[in-house]
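USER: If only I could read backbone structure tokens as easily as an amino acid sequence. It would mean a lot if you studied the pair and described how this chain folds. Here is the record:
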Amino acid sequence: MQYKTIVRILGILVSIFSVSMIPPAVVALLYKDGGGTAFVASFFLTLFGGMFFWYTYREHKNDLKAREGFIIVVAFWVVLGSVGALPFYIMDQPNLSLADSIFESFSGLTTTGATIMTGLDDLPKAVQYYRQQLQWLGGMGIIVLAVAILPMLGVGGMQLYRAETPGPVKESKMTPRIADTAKHLWYIYVTLTVTCALAYWAAGMDSFDALLHSFSTVAIGGFSNHDLSMGYFNNSLINSVCIVFLIISGINFSLHYAAVRNRSIKSYLRDPEFKVFLIVQVAVALTCFLVLLKTETYMNSDDSFNQALFHAVSMSTTAGFTTDDFSQWPLFLPILLVFSSFIGGCAGSTGGGMKVVRIYLLFLQGIRELNRLVHPRAVYTIKLGKKAVPDRIVEAIWGFFSAYTLVFVIIMLMLMSTGLDNVTAFSATAASINNLGPGLGEVAAHYGEISDAAKWICVVAMVFGRLEIFTLLVLFTPTFWRS
């Protein structure tokens, strides 16, 4: 294991991340409402810390293997989340403990969107900006950005990309060179962010709110600089903009790339995962609408439809934006919305959850097993569109599902051991591991009231969800550490 090479690369990545402290410091300078000193101090601490580790091991430039790639990805997210907590811990407003600072940082970077903060409207503008920026950086993945930069520093990127990229088909690349792939992903990501910000501004947000909410929308994060989230604006047009860009961001980014490259939407129409993704959105929204309408939760059908559509898309894509307290909705709707986050977005999107393609392939596998009961000797092939799916992929998905279930149960039991009730523990686990954010019970509004032990457990769940279980779980296997 090339430990010194790993430390050198981590030093480079942390040094690069230090640049993210500069924009909020500039915001503090412009608005003059505090927070600037904490970001300047964090910038120098992060920069010098990263440079120290890089300089100490600067001569170690050995080639990376797959194992080193996994360690770098996991270690970098742990280090990055810790470094990202520095401004929260240093500053006086808000005055956060270590556990709260770590929780807020990891929640932002993993695009979970759970928060321990209240009084968001009164926070310094620099803090508001920084929280949203964390989600924007975490949305596509800092590692993918680093993959585009590291080749210039003499570090190969394929091992990192394979470890970081979500979805069951990690071997596929949009362009022959991995650096080009990462760069094209970021071109699309930045373009969507700018377009989303302009759309929010045109719909009625001021420029600052538009920029901040475009960060968390395209990242499918869910952070807002208002306690009422999207409900603060009480604007159906803003809600519509949010819905559109959440759906766009929940689609596999390789489809966006193909559409831009070919100047055609055929790539979307041919993709079975995209179709299933839309079906899920429609099904959840329609169910919520009919129940809200029947129970007369809102004054008229228009309000019922708007609330149902917004929360269905927001929760099923794992964004977690809200316009009302959905945890108080009647019957099974709150649980339905939480369960919809288990499906999440498409593979290769900024959404969380288990990903649509995995759930769809599990469904097809279930259908195949039912058919085999009727015709035991028949040969059935699982197809994704017109392409047959190798049994090895199906086996890997079953393995992922089993590991996901095991991790989920363990984390939920650990949260219950801290004193949380069943509903709160279940929803907090689902919200953390699916990178959703809002839950039910004690964590419906925020996570500030739960114990520090529960917060640390939720942080672990967020990392598991962001790295899609296997990338982190593989480090706990004896085979991984055998030379």
